[in-house]
Design goal:
With 79 residues, the protein is an all-alpha fold. It has five helices and no strands. Helix 4 packs across helix 5.
């Protein structure tokens, strides 16, 4: 299986989000709900959407989340 430039960019975005929030990739795509996990996921989701990925695709890359979960993540504001 050949690694496409798009997959490399997705991997880089996820790694950057995890690194910027000092969490592991597993925590980024996992089910944890700590603030830093959610903020990192939101950032990653925004970056993936800016690449032109659909909500379903973004959810897939963020640990198999449903498209509605991704939409909610992107619409929520920090409190």
């Amino acid at each position: 299986m050949e690694v496409t430039p798009e997959m490399e960019r997705i991997t880089r975005i996820l790694a950057e989000a995890a690194n910027d929030w000092n969490i592991t990739l597993g925590e980024l795509i996992g089910s944890g709900r700590k603030r830093e996990y959610v903020e990192a996921r939101r950032y990653a989701a925004q970056q993936l959407r800016s690449m032109g990925l659909g909500l379903k695709q973004v959810g897939h890359h963020l640990g198999g989340r449903d498209h509605a979960t991704v939409a909610n993540l992107l619409c929520r504001r920090e409190r």
